[in-house]
Amino acid sequence: MSDAPSPATASAPDMLELAALLCSRVCHDLISPVGAIVNGLEVLDDDPKPEDREFALDLIRKSAKTASARLQFCRLAFGAAGSSGAQIDLGDAQTMAKGHIEDGKCTITWNLPRLLLPKNRVKLLLNMLVVSQHTIPRGGMLTVDAIGEGETMSFRITATGHNARLPQNISELLSGERGPAADAHAIQPYYTRLLAQACGLTVTLKLEGEAVIVTAS
């Protein structure tokens, strides 16, 4: 009998690869708004007409706001967010999630109470929101509900929107059927699975009618 590792085990990243891929994911999220800021500054450097100057300043303002929101979200979703055993306010998580995800195409209905939860559960919730966003590529609504209460609370996110779907690669990464490919996109659902395991939970995706349900249980 062969002792070769399973595909999921063979392709799972070590700690250095995990850190590198998460950093790549953060950089991917930030490169667009930061690049727009640079473009706006270049327009200003060219001594533009008044209308072009106002356009450049508006671009810089909006892009700086987007970059700040994404940084704050990534700090909470992927970063240390306090010492071991720290707790995070769900109200802060709501603010970060809305700032990062709500963009005119996607909105969040947040039905969670405001309380402190262990940081890994809050990080899991934020990563579940990113997973849910991928199921409605044309935008829609993400509805966040609690399962249970107190420090053992888990979550259910209902994603509704035109052409809601189950991305096959994300489902496999969450279920552990395979490890992540070596890119910043695949590492996020893989990291979501690691967070769920740390909380003693499993994240599943399920298509119900025209909605996708993402559950941690």
UniProtKB/TrEMBL annotation:
Coiled coil segments of this chain: none
Gene3D superfamilies linked to this entry: 1.10.287.130, Histidine kinase-like ATPase, C-terminal domain (3.30.565.10)
Pfam families to which the protein is assigned, alphabetical: HPTransfase
InterPro entries with a match to the protein in the record: ChpT_C, HATPase_C_sf
Entry superkingdom: Bacteria
Domain Histidine phosphotransferase ChpT C-terminal residue range list: 91-210
Annotated NCBIfam families: HisPtaseChptBrucRhz
Full protein name: Histidine phosphotransferase family protein
Organism field: Bradyrhizobium zhengyangense
Lineage: Bacteria, Pseudomonadati, Pseudomonadota, Alphaproteobacteria, Hyphomicrobiales
